[in-house]
Amino acid sequence: MKLVNLIPMLEEAQNGHYAVGAFNYCNAETAQAVVEVGCELRSPVMFITGPWEVPLLGAKMMVDIAKWVAAEADVPVCLHLDHAVEIDLVKECIEAGFPSVMIDASRYDFEENVRLTKMVVDMAHPKGVTVEGELGAVGRVDDSSVEGEGETSLTDPAKAAEFVERTGVDALASAIGNAHGIYTQRPILDFERLKDIRSATGIPLVLHGGSGTPSDQLHKAIEIGISKVNVASELGRAYLDAIEQFDQAKGGKAWYAHAIMDAKTAIKQVTAKWMKVLGSTNRVP
Known about the structure:
alpha/beta
């Protein structure tokens, strides 16, 4: 299949009362692992890659790999730029062929956030590229997280309505008590706030910081209107742990290609768990 943007994937998720897992992607092995699981479980697949991963291979190679694995798949695959804070990176990724991008201008005041987000929407929409914005700031659990800013502020529903109307974004990342990274204690999500944001905006909502969120809270958030859940830290931890354990088992003399095979298996296990928890399995005929 060809790469798709956010709209059809998230509209189907909304109608089906499930969420799409957006899985961090940094190399061919992780891309293969996620798509293979998606095909096995009949789930739509979404990759997210951000300012920390794109320089590893470059935007064009990121697109080429995603297109390659999508061509071999019989489920929809979306490639999405995550947490871009620089307009130049967004422009580079759009020109390279990303079908979906995020501009995270949440560290700025409201008016500047609107201005920058609208700039990206105006750049992206004529090319058929969808845009995710963020209002309110999703903070970090600890320094092991690789995305987002250090500050946290909850999303104001009234401001969210104005933000969506003035920018024309296709999806909105909201701060409702969630955080990037793997939680050290149970998060407390503000579901009343989420209901108000959903009612005020009417567009698909995104939960950043999915890793470690209890399944009961995820299910309730999905019922209210979350259609996309980002999973990054848990994947990264599983990848590194698998390599470390393999090397230890080989007495520190492991061949790196063999270790990466174990890491790929670990990625598949985490991906399968999340697709099942989010309810996206058996959604593709």
